[in-house]
Amino acid sequence: MTFTHLFTPLKLGGLTLPNRMLMAPLTRCRADENHVPTALMAEHYSQRASAGLIIAEATAAMDGCSAFGAEPGIYNDAQVAGWKQVTDAVHAKGGQIVLQIWHGGRACHPLLNGGKVPVAPSAIAITNDEIHTPDGKFPYTVPRELADAEIPIIIAGFKAAAVNAKAAGFDGVEIHAANGYLLDEFLRDGSNQRGGAYGGTVENRARLLLEVLDATIAVWDSNRVGVRISPLNSFNSMVDSDPVATFSWLAGKLNDYRLAYLHVMRSDFKGIQQGDVMTPIRSIYQGAIVGNMGYDAEESEAAIFSGKLDAVAFGVPFLANPDLPTRFAKNAELNAPDPAKFYSAGAEGYTDYPYLAA
Q1: Cα–Cα distance measured from residue 161 to residue 76, given in angstroms and rounded to the nearest whole number
Q2: What is the rounded distance in angstroms from the CA atom of residue 228 to the CA atom of residue 180?
């Protein structure tokens, strides 16, 4: 099969992409103990520079919001310098890379944050999983409800992260409002049961995300900013009573921002919550939509051809195949991923996946 549309260049706001195969953000816990990106990470991302655009992994916007232990941050000078190694390496290979900025919310744990209790819209803990810490696996703790008076601190943290991302040489930023982390926790009513200005109606639940967007756009042109959402994903005990209504409203509101793209995770990691969120979002959102979760080359080509999507973000396929576009172009066999090494330290299962033989 010839994938003509996957290889058609695309204008995403202020970004011009050579193809429509994006590398999805993948947390792989290869930063050092101080959340500083490493030379190994620079090698990993530069290997995948043939992606139309790399969306780098979830990166802590501020200190004290770690949910993995070895994820990178973007809140101090050492982290900026570490990320500068990464962006320089990607740009040297002709690639483009944006940074996903993030707060872990209730997915954080005191053992990863110097004893600090995690914050969330409401004091409701994650119940369907355990967290990995240096002392072993533990249940998630009940978070502290974030006071309205504290919210400007969160917004300022995201704005500072946006400033630092620019200093680190990124081509743009993506706001992580998915997968049960802080901004998503405010969006969905299963985790946001507060009253006041940031709870209750969808307009109020979306307020924090929109204020973070306003702060980010004060740093970056809006056409260099993307947003990632996951309307159906139940990961981190997430649910919404009416995801189609919630995210249709959000899609309409995001039209006001003239973003580079809206990045939509279409399904549920656990397969619990079912439904079609892509069709209503596509009918409402007027900008570029990047689809994610379970797309192969054939479905991606068809979705772009039909106008359902503008591009597709591939996660595990890009992890296991640093030369994924070449393999699609040649209809070549893909490397099999090694899930046992997804979150391990070191090069194995990270930078040692082979390229297609010449």
Answers
A1: 9
A2: 12
